[in-house]
């Protein structure tokens, strides 16, 4: 992508506020989804690096602080993913994507085409 996912998601959400054209909203939503995935991957990689040397108890504390699940039987990879999702989901970029999704939904636009529903 030409820009970082956060900047792109914020720009896309702002652009969508005045749109009602379904095709244009579909395009923004598709671009936003790719940026959301890229942003999540970046956060997940960062969380994995940051938590690599933490004990399970320290990782559990970090999950609790972020509101991420820590359940018996979860692998460390699952815990890191849950922590990354909780962290990313609370970020302004992820919130902007939610706004974009909601705007698109007002006009019946979603990532799945009607033929798939």
What's this entry about, in short?
The protein is mostly helical and 117 residues long. 70% of the residues lie in helices and 0% in strands.
Largest sheet: none
What is the helix fraction of residues, given as a range? over 70%
Structural class: mainly alpha
Distance between the termini: 29 Å
Q: What is the number of E strands? A: 0
Determine Rg (CA atoms, Å).
17 Å
Describe this entry's structure for a reader.
This protein has 117 residues and is mostly helical. Helix content is 70%, strand content 0%. Helix 2 (22-51) crosses helix 4 and helix 3 runs parallel beside helix 4 (76-89). The longest helix has 30 residues, at 22-51. The mean pLDDT is 92.
Sequence-ordered SSE layout with sheet pairings:
Elements: H1 5-16, H2 22-51, H3 56-66, H4 76-89, H5 92-106
Helix pairs in contact: 1-2, 1-5, 2-4, 2-5, 3-4
Observed structural traits:
70% helix, mainly alpha, elongated, 117 residues, single chain, 5 helices
């Amino acid at each position: 992508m030409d820009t970082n996912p956060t900047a792109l998601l914020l720009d896309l959400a702002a652009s969508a506020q005045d749109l009602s054209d379904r095709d244009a909203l579909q395009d923004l939503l598709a671009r936003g989804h790719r940026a959301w995935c890229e942003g999540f991957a970046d956060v997940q990689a960062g969380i994995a690096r940051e938590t690599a040397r933490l004990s399970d108890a320290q990782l559990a504390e970090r999950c609790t602080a972020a509101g991420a699940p820590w359940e018996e039987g979860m692998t460390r990879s699952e815990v890191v993913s849950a922590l990354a999702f909780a962290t990313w989901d609370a970020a302004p970029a992820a919130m902007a994507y939610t706004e974009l999704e909601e705007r698109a939904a007002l006009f019946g636009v979603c990532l799945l085409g009607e033929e798939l529903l």
